[in-house]
Write a structure and sequence with these properties.
By secondary structure, the protein is α+β, with helices and mostly antiparallel strands. It is 26% helix and 29% strand. Helix 3 (88-101) crosses helix 4. It is globular, with a radius of gyration of 21 Å. The two termini are 16 Å apart. The protein binds pyridoxal-5'-phosphate and 2-OXO-4-methylpentanoic acid. 2-OXO-4-methylpentanoic acid (COI) is lined by residues 72, 234, 304-306. Pyridoxal-5'-phosphate binds at residues 72, 231, 234-236, 259, 261-264, 304-305.
Length: 359
């Protein structure tokens, strides 16, 4: 790894003040990692360098045809002051899968992990220490061949940036959701399983519609039958059926159109560890509405790297509005959130070997 240090890196007091502000994506650490790929030479040597703007030809492929992928993972401060990443290998694998779907080069897992480690070694001081806060790491890759022909790019640029992240949503408040029946996020054979910018670009008009309805987030339903609940704009969904020790924690099945969330996958294990039954199911909008009305569905929450676990309260759609429980964060939701955060912050045993300490 080539290393070029930032001569204008923030001093510790300035950095700590920025980290203390919380928020999401407001400030970026002093460095970034870049690595170029070409069809001819493969991956070059990665470089850690000062964070800053990049210069690209206006005819660069990514600006025109959106050939881009990204990832999101977090580094957590541990009780002994060290830093540990949550399941970075899973992000590396999903990044490679997204690359394959977008006709971008698959970055070897070791190279991906090497870049994350290098940034953390340099900018580890930016990792917050409060529970629920972390350093959010954003690897991404863009197509950099210059030219307007529509073809897979023969050049790509991988970059890695990081931002201190507080809560994406306030976990003490339930998120309200708008179930979109007008727009569709992903169809089978499309890019729903990949983490590509295009999925998010196409979702924004629905996000706008949600805001107009007074809702925080969009819930997507399937493209074919237009009835199966899939996921949210940037998070997977969970439903709690029943209560206390008899509760079953269910999540929509991965059908090929949802993003296979790493938090979603982890919660299947955490919920089992806590003694709950878990199920991956096909759940329709009618099941949601009827389950809430009958009281069978007692809690709903969203989960993802940025959001961790966020309670979902009111659901609004063209078919009406219904509220889960008393509209407040559920007991099991908060129990799962706290259990996951305890593993991530190193205050509970890492029985699944998810944490990777930065050495
Ligand atoms: N679904 C979408 C569309 C997302 O953008 C995300 C965020 O990464 C998730 C689900 C949750 O995935 P993960 O838990 O891997 O962050
Ligand atoms: C993440 O949780 O990593 C995401 O990519 C979601 C995004 C809405 C920030």
């Amino acid at each position: 790894m080539k290393i070029t240090l930032n001569p204008h890196a923030k001093d510790a007091a300035t950095r700590d003040a920025l980290v203390a502000e919380g928020g999401f994506g407001k400030y970026y650490t002093d460095h970034m990692v870049v690595c170029e790929w070409s069809e001819k030479d493969g991956w070059g040597e990665p470089e850690l360098k000062p964070y800053g703007p990049i210069s690209l030809d206006p005819a660069t492929a990514v600006f025109h045809y959106g050939q881009e992928i990204f990832e999101g993972l977090k580094a957590y401060r541990q009780p002994d002051g060290s830093i540990a990443l949550f399941r970075p290998d899973a992000n590396a694998k999903r990044f490679a899968k997204s690359a394959a779907r977008l006709a971008l080069p698959e970055m070897p897992e070791v190279l991906f992990l090497e870049t994350v480690d290098a940034l953390l070694k340099q900018d580890g001081g930016w990792v917050p220490s409060k529970i629920g806060e972390a350093l959010y790491i954003r690897p991404f890759m863009i197509a950099t061949e210059v030219g307007l022909g529509v073809r897979p790019s023969n050049k790509a640029l991988y970059m890695l940036i990081a931002t201190p992240a507080g809560a994406y949503f306030d976990p003490s408040k339930a998120v309200s959701v708008w179930i979109s029946t007008e727009y569709v996020r992903a169809a089978l054979g499309g890019t729903g399983e990949a983490k590509c910018g295009g999925n998010y670009a196409a979702s924004l008009v629905a996000q706008k519609a949600a805001a107009k309805e007074g809702c925080d987030q969009v819930v997507w339903i399937d493209a074919k039958e237009r009835k199966w609940v899939e996921e949210m704009g940037g998070m997977n969904l969970y439903f709690v059926k029943g209560s206390r020790a008899d509760a079953t924690v269910v999540t929509p099945k991965l059908t090929g159109t949802l993003l296979p969330g790493i938090t979603r996958d982890s919660i299947l294990s955490v919920a089992k560890d806590l003694g709950y039954k878990t199920e991956e199911v096909m759940l329709s909008i009618d099941d949601w509405r009827d389950g809430v009305k009958s009281g069978e569905i007692t809690e709903i929450f969203a989960c993802g790297t940025a959001a961790v676990v966020s309670p979902v309260g009111q659901a609004k759609s063209a078919m009406g509005t219904w509220v889960t429980g008393d509209g407040q964060p559920g007991v099991i939701t908060m129990q799962i959130r706290n259990a996951l955060l305890a593993i991530q912050h190193g205050t509970a045993p890492d029985s699944h070997n998810w944490m990777s300490v930065v050495k």
